[in-house]
Amino acid sequence: xxxxxxxxxxxxxxxxxxxxxxxxxxxxxxxxxxxxxxxxxxxxxxxxxxxxxxxxxxxxxxxxxxxxxxxxxxxxxxxxxxxxxxxxxxxxxxxxxxxxxxxxxxxxxxxxxxxxxxxxxxxxxxxxxxxxxxxxxxxxxxxxxxxxxxxxxxxxxxxxxxxxxxxxxxxxxxxxxxxxxxxxxxxxxxxxxxxxxxxxxxxxxxxxxxxxxxxxxxxxxxxxxxxxxxxxxxxxxxxxxxxxxxxxxxxxxxxxxxxxxxxxxxxxxxxxxxxxxxxxxxxxxxxxxxxxxxxxxxxxxxxxxxxxxxxxxxxxxxxxxxxxxxxxxxxxxxxxxxxxxxxxxxxxxxxxxxxxxxxxxxxxxxxxxxxxxxxxxxxxxxxxxxxxxxxxxxxxxxxxxxxxxxxxxxxxxxxxxxxxxxxxxxxxxxxxxxxxxxxxxxxxxxxxxxxxxxxxxxxxxxxxxxxxx
Length: 469
Fold this sequence. Notes:
The protein is α/β, with parallel strands linked by helices and 469 residues long. The chain has eleven helices and 17 strands. It has two domains: 37-373, Alkaline Phosphatase, subunit A (3-Layer(aba) Sandwich); 376-459, Arylsulfatase, C-terminal domain (2-Layer Sandwich), CATH 3.30.1120.10.
């Protein structure tokens, strides 16, 4: 049964004040802890680090609208993504481990021809046979719209071929007249206008909207007003305090605010779930060594399996269904979006099992987060680190290094900065986690790097030159 009730179903604790809704609990027993199938708005930031937002402790960047979103909803403290963009986008769309598709690096990836290992090729697109979020929710009557960065395949493999009915794909932090149809515009502003137009056009039916920003990806740029604002602001000790970065982030923040304001202006707040996340950890420095942000107290950055590369900000708001100002330290990941939204939309299961789990119980009253679980990562490439795999189980995390077949073990609850390797002190646990990680790789058919016969230690860090066109 798929009834799109446009008012929240009261929680069990509120029944005495809403006796006239009691019959709904018998009709829809599976929905007694959350409201009827909601509209869904996913806002995906690019390269936004765990420590970049005010609500996560940043004291230089100004993000009042995202901070307000957290104050009005739930903020995760241990939410994970892939280490780079395309893997996260693949698992978010599919609910499956990106290693199943060979999308374990950004598309098309890059190579180090003289490194110790030859990394496996990166698949250039998400297979069309994958059942995406859009296809799952469209099957239950949702209108679907996708605006912004895709990075999961070129012509013939875009969002329009993956169940998204209204699409506009673009990259970069500015858009030319050929894209906007009138004048050069800031990408965040342009995507916001398109998103609001979509919401207004589909306000009378359930909808799924994904807004995939390019901010705060390099090359950085921002408006003259915001650049001047942050250039005049004193730097914060221990943080790069880059005006271009802060300005671009404020553009993203303004976009979030305007989209949420449109939802509320149309009276859709109680019917709309807004989910804000980042596709990977912050880019601390580029290949040339230029510094952009800091993920402290986390170690590492985008392109690594340390916490700074994979732990990301994640916030969800659903007015009157998710309690305001709450936090969750449950282990969660972008792979979980698909099964969560499919459950809320009462969508039939896909033809193949998903690897994620539903997070709907996280905001139940009382909370019922996912049971004990293991999270896995596979990065068989050279990026900002060396080829590696990782597993997180409970408070423990193991990183396995493929070059020399070694492993490091960290107790994340006591050492979120991953400063102390406990592998030698915990040999049994280390062996157990390595076995679990190897078993998982076989299960998902993860592709491994192989020994490079052309390895040259003096040239190991050289990047392959792009082919001439």
